[in-house]
């Protein structure tokens, strides 16, 4: 059965692959699972029909037969569990890959999101200029530790996994901030993720929604 995911009808990121349908698309591409996309306006996201799928009225969602899921991390995990290619077979390696999925979303992303929210909605506050460096220092702490752990490895734990997929998706949120570049192995890690054919297909498909033109190639 072909799953259906939801995505922004018009993403505020203008197709830069920062909205959270992107990791879901990427995971589906990695495992070779075709999917349909239902595009939603901000208004439609808040209507009861969509809230039955997503209690918080957001994207992405995932529908497959009787199953309806929300939360991009849970959706990526579901895809990784049902298909080969995103989680190792060895039970311990699998558990470590899942730990990296949680680390991406629960440990590395929160300070990145705090900075994004501050830049978006707090930039006119009197304390903004003083707060921003504090938020950026918190990000640097996480990046420093992540960089040390990654070292000169290609991926976080041997082979590419759903943990890397989510970590790269999270780190991409820092593009243009200048924060990643102090740790040269991290931009290189992100670039390795972005070079994967599955990533490129997913990126092209979400960009095509924004441009209105079919993906090239
Ligand atoms: N924890 C949830 C998950 O991981 O699925 C968070 C889902 C979420 O934040 N969804 C956002 C949404 O639906 C879109 S992705 N927002 C509408 C709303 O809440 O009303 C977040 C996002 C939006 C825009 C950009 N951007 O423009 O760069 C980046 C990320």
Account of the protein in words:
This protein is α+β, with helices and mostly antiparallel strands. Helices cover 55% and strands 8% of the residues. It contains nine helices and four strands. A four-stranded mixed sheet has the order 2-1-3-4. It starts with a strand and ends in a 6-residue tail after the last helix. The site of S-(P-nitrobenzyl)glutathione (GTB) has 13 residues, from helix 4.
Which key terms come to mind for this protein?
217 residues; alpha+beta; four-stranded mixed beta sheet; 4 strands; globular; binds S-(P-nitrobenzyl)glutathione
Query: Structural class per helix/strand content?
Result: alpha+beta
Bound molecules: S-(P-nitrobenzyl)glutathione
Average pLDDT taken over every residue: 97
What is the subunit organization of this protein? single chain
Portion of residues in beta strands equals 5-15%
List the uncertain runs: none
**Order of helical and strand elements:** EHEHHEEHHHHHH
Distance between the termini: 26 Å
Summed up, what is this model?
This protein is of the alpha+beta class.
List the helices and strands and how they pair.
Blueprint: E1 4-8, H1 21-31, E2 36-40, H2 42-45, H3 48-51, E3 61-64, E4 67-70, H4 72-82, H5 91-121, H6 128-150, H7 162-171, H8 185-194, H9 197-211
Parallel strand pairs: 1-2
Antiparallel strand pairs: 1-3, 3-4
The protein binds S-(P-nitrobenzyl)glutathione.
